[in-house]
Amino acid sequence: MKKDKFESASKIETANCADAQGKVAAASPKVYARGSKTKVAMWGVGVASFALVVGLVACAPPATTGKIEAAPSPNAAAKHATPEADEFGVVTAESWKDIYPNEYASYMDNASNSPDSGKKNYLETYPALNTMYKGYAFALGYDQAAGHLYTLESVKETPRTQQKEQLANCITCKTPQFTALVNSEGDGVYAEKFNDMIGQFDEPVSCYNCHENDPKSNTVASKFFFDSLGADADSIPKDAQVCGQCHNEYYFNGQTKVPANPYSGREQMTPDAILAYYDSMGFADWKYPGTDTPMIKVQHPEFETNYGGGGSYMTNLGYTCADCHMGKATAEDGTVYVNHKWTSPLENEDLLANDCSKCHSDLKAEVAEIQAHQEERVQAISKKIEQLANTMTDQVAAGTLAGDKLAQCQKLHRNAQFYWDFVMVENGDGAHNSKLSDETLDKSEKAVDEALALLA
Fold first, then answer.
1. Does 43 score more than 50 pLDDT?
2. Which domain of life is it from (predicted)?
């Protein structure tokens, strides 16, 4: 398995945010106007919605589904004024610690998911990526992400920002202080130089990202994402939306460098519709060296995998990200609070025993089987895509691949890698929506096989 089991076993792109050279439209870029009061999102947790076994129809979500709120400790909330904000207008996590001691302590428990806790180098785990991402900054470095407490550290230290000049939009979702700066100064902040700005910030992802400065409510602070939900925003639980603000597929507008989503509403959140959206824009993240294939780099589409199209099985039952990755906890003094250590549900023994066990005799084994199946397919198809890229490059250099045949192979190369990447970078490893993951890998494999046959 390529994921650890701390934050939804997640590769949530704390260091692996979109390459800040961005998703740039090659033609007719769309400008997304936003007000100056936008706020960027909570990283949340990988959305857990296991599409696993027949019989789950009988399940009912817990009473807190879609309604998990920060339960103040006995000495909290009404008895205390909101702490003073920092220079950016952010009340830091530490400032809340005396008012919400249990939430703060569990938040700080995320320190265990550190960069030194055995993270994988994906360029080694998936050797084909060295070929597949050639010409793009992800080929410089692509490590398994550390937890939310390390978002700033990770984005500063990735080779993608150290070895290549990036824009400040790569700081999106790394610190609430950047969010607040955008709020006060406007979207022009996104187009500033990364290295000119990153040193200003010292607060990693924290309370403000999900709650702004009001821990008693959840806020979808990232307005470009909220707008992309359209009318569906009324039917999707806020617990899912606040996580989805950063756990989504996005690109950077070619002119403004502002983040945007390639869809409007749930029906357009499918891999097919997203690819069609990019195709309609004449959009590419980069041109593949040696073949000029216009490539797409998918980000981390947990939200789309769970809520796009018809939705995943568990989200259709009413379960949200927070139900599976946070949930309630009880302190030694009997206080019930929301656990802010983001973990895989497989690490939550209380959840497994008291909720999951109603439908699953051995959820860990079921998930392991799903993830092993996907891992095998992801590895196998990556080797085919690597073969395709190398074969195309060799034939173009030899002058035997050109014209209409080259254009056909470029389209198949683009499609195959897009569908593959959509599955590989999604943090559930198939467990969030195994049916969609398999169908998407089928489309990747069909495209790469067709291209290889053309080149034979």
1. no
2. Bacteria
